[in-house]
Amino acid sequence: MDSARWNPETLAALADALEVDVTPIAADGSRRSSRTVWSIRVGDELYLRSWKGRGAAWFRDAVATGQGELAVIGGGASQLVRFEEVDAEANIQAQISATFLTKYAADRYAAAMNESGPLESTLRLIPR
After folding, report:
1. How many CB atoms are located within 10 Å of the residue 72 CB?
2. Taking a C-beta distance cutoff of 8 angstroms, is the pair 103, 59 a contact?
3. φ, ψ for residue 127 (rounded to 5)?
4. Low-confidence ranges of the chain (pLDDT < 70)
5. Cα(15)–Cα(9) distance, rounded to whole angstroms?
6. pLDDT value, residue 2
7. Measured distance CA(1)–CA(11) in Å, rounded
8. Lowest CB count within 10 Å: 32, 72, 84, 102, which one?
């Protein structure tokens, strides 16, 4: 577990938003292309998955740079973060999958976020 902690209001805003923008940031500070994604909260942790799995450009950039920003679409809360890959076999994956299904139950694509491609692209976000 990382020692960085979320500001409770920021965590709640990013977790409650139906969609957020994720922007990987390179070591030189340059920003990569942003992508709109779904975020979910399990306990006091925030997670993302890539709809297109590990091959998505934003995911590859996030893993390569290791850092970025997450922001509520349309303004409001934002947070600089570090990206940490979550092993597809990790115990937390069951909770992440269940949370995706609960939060996005009204969306016909919710179940697809728990299939092998997206499951293997799970990222934990650590505030920085």
Report:
1. 19
2. no
3. -65, 145
4. 1-3
5. 10
6. 52
7. 17
8. 102
Query: 8-127, superfamily in CATH?
Result: Electron Transport, Fmn-binding Protein; Chain A (2.30.110.10)
Beta strands (DSSP E) in the chain are 20-24, 35-37, 39-42, 45-48, 67-72, 78-85, 123-127
Q: What are the tokens at 23?
A: 């922007």
Instruction: Answer yes or no: are the C-beta atoms of 72 and 13 closer than 8 Å.
Output: yes
pTM, entire model: 0.93
* Residues facing 79 on adjacent strands: 70
- 26, amino acid identity: A
What does the radius of gyration of the chain's CA atoms come to, in whole angstroms? 13
Nearest to 86 by CA among 52, 43, 54, 38: 54
**97: nearest Cα among 124, 83, 115:** 115
- Residue 110: phi and psi, rounded to 5, are -55, -45
